[in-house]
Design brief:
The chain is 48% helix and 18% strand. By secondary structure, the chain is an alpha/beta fold. The protein has a 5-stranded parallel sheet. Strand 3 and strand 4 form a beta hairpin. The N and C termini lie close together (11 Å).
Length: 220
């Protein structure tokens, strides 16, 4: 069984995917973490200069590092680079502000697409992202698209960041998300769209629990 959850940044995709994973005892793959990890490697190796990615060097960097998913201490699949968990390194503002630039590159998207499909071979999974139901698994058994207003998504994202980044403001977060929305929806390769036959759920007036119950109603 393959379940896909697409939607813009901070729409609640990963939170819901984790709930689905726990409920059905299937693997959750956060595809956004793959792009964030690639962005982390690019920044760590100084391969992004003035929003320009040194693609040839980045591809070489990816070939010299192994990106995989493995179970952590709580038995959840998390992303690793060379067998080392990197989750704590990829959820920063600097990564968020650069990940869409990396994700627009065709060669990077092809690299991630291959990895995503390899991970899913002979497995039951729930995967969230921006092109999962439209490009990665267009024939998935269940496809969902989550949407919410920019205002509500900004509040969610700010709550995630405020403890680690004391000076971050909702205004800054909203501006960053708005910019990401534009890049994600207007990029040439695999833009953010509502996948064909996907069930659309607007979470503006719903709690995570309520959205989860709605999703469970559709999964047989």
């Amino acid at each position: 069984m393959i379940i896909t959850i697409d939607g813009p940044s901070s729409s609640g995709k990963s939170t819901l995917a984790k709930l689905i994973s726990d409920h059905f005892s299937i693997i959750h793959i956060d595809s956004g973490s793959i792009y964030r990890t690639i962005t982390h490697l690019a920044i760590e190796n100084k391969l992004i200069i003035d929003k320009e990615v040194q693609l040839e060097k980045l591809i070489k960097c990816l070939n010299n590092n192994i990106i995989t998913f493995k179970r952590n201490d709580t038995n959840k699949f998390q992303i690793c680079v060379n067998n080392e968990f990197v989750e704590s390194k990829i959820r920063t503002t600097i990564i968020s502000n650069n990940v869409s630039t990396v994700a627009t590159i065709k060669e990077i998207r092809n690299y991630v697409l291959k990895l995503q499909r390899e991970i899913a071979v002979n497995k039951s999974i729930v995967m969230d992202g921006r092109d999962i139901g439209s490009v990665v698994f267009p024939n998935a058994e269940y496809k969902f698209y989550l949407c919410a207003s920019l205002k509500n998504r900004s509040k969610r994202r700010w709550k995630e960041l405020k403890d680690d980044e004391k000076n971050i403001t909702i205004t800054t977060v909203e501006s960053d998300l708005e910019n990401r929305d534009i890049i994600d929806s207007e990029r040439e390769h695999s833009p953010l769209i509502i996948p064909e036959n996907a069930i659309v759920i607007n979470s503006d007036d719903l709690s995570i629990s309520q959205v989860f119950k709605k999703i469970l109603h559709f999964i047989k």
